[in-house]
From TrEMBL:
A Pfam family it matches: NAD_binding_10
Example of a GO MF term: NAD(P)H dehydrogenase (quinone) activity
Highest taxon listed in the record's lineage: Bacteria
Annotated NAD(P)-binding domain residues: 8-132
Segments crossing the lipid bilayer: none
Protein name: Quinone oxidoreductase 2
Gene3D superfamilies xrefs: NAD(P)-binding Rossmann-like Domain
Organism from which the protein derives: Streptomyces cyanogenus
Signal peptide: none
Enzyme Commission numbers on file: 1.6.5.2
Keywords: Oxidoreductase
UniProt keyword Cell wall biogenesis/degradation, yes or no: no
Length: 254
């Protein structure tokens, strides 16, 4: 049995990774800012981090926030992992962090480089956006009477449980470096995802496509965040919506 530490282990992905590893019989420690006995803020580190890593063989690093601090958190985690003699650091990143000049993506790419240069055995998996994230974005966009989406932007959402399964499998294996990306089963226009969301939730809104400006928008329009050749996910956005909102089958647009 391997002792594994999952950072961000109470989050959308980390919680499922933890469940999957425990179901496999592994000893899993959950590290988050508020969950005892391993309540640690990675951005500040401290003695609690060393205690959390004592005897740990593998770390799955899921903790992340677009509000900033990921790079410092990674530095603290890597330094403590070295002190503890951790043999394998697994990191979840995002498809397109090297192609889309979004601030959060740049931070994720910087963390990838820290992991690669850590001196530890490492594995990095990039995934496309989770279905959950797309719905969170659409919930905010649907608040006004008109749902406005960026024109010409595609997306390829993936089921978070499938990513968790893949990440857990990587954690149980040997360090593998950068592994093939993981993407959802369909490349979709964002307006088609918006309409599917409205149908699933029984809401009525006109969907309006609005062109934007800037390098980040152009990169998204060009599909820098997609991996159509690696569409290994099985669960479609409509299947996710049906499970989450329970209003019967949601039909995919023809």
């Amino acid at each position: 049995m391997t002792t594994i530490l999952v950072t961000g282990g109470t989050g959308t992905l980390g919680r499922l990774v933890t469940q999957r590893l425990r179901a496999d019989g592994q000893e899993v420690r959950v590290l988050s800012r508020r969950t005892r006995p391993y309540a640690v803020d990675l951005r500040t580190g401290g003695a609690g981090l060393d205690a959390a890593l004592a005897g740990v063989e593998t770390v799955v690093h899921c903790a992340s926030t677009p509000r900033g601090g990921d790079e410092q958190a990674a530095r603290n985690l890597i330094a403590a992992a070295r002190r503890a003699g951790v043999g394998h650091l697994v990191y979840i990143s995002i498809v397109g962090v090297d192609r889309v000049p979004l601030g959060y993506y740049r931070s994720k790419l910087a963390v990838e480089r820290l992991v690669e240069e850590s001196g530890l055995g490492w594995t990095v998996l990039r995934a496309t956006q989770f279905h959950d994230l797309v719905v969170t974005l659409l919930q905010g966009l649907a608040k006004p009477p008109v749902l406005v989406v960026p024109a010409g932007v595609p997306d390829q959402p993936v089921e978070v449980a499938e990513v968790a399964e893949r990440l857990a499998g990587l954690a149980l294996g040997a360090p593998a470096g950068r592994v093939p990306d993981m993407a959802g089963p369909e490349v979709r226009t964002f307006d088609s995802l918006a309409r599917a969301y409205l149908r699933a939730t029984g809401r009525r809104r006109p969907v309006v496509r609005v062109p934007l400006a800037g390098k980040t928008y152009r990169a998204f329009r060009a599909g820098g965040h997609l991996a159509p050749e690696l569409a290994v996910g099985k669960v479609t956005f409509e299947e996710y919506l049906e499970r989450r909102f329970g209003k019967g089958p949601v039909q995919s647009p023809a």
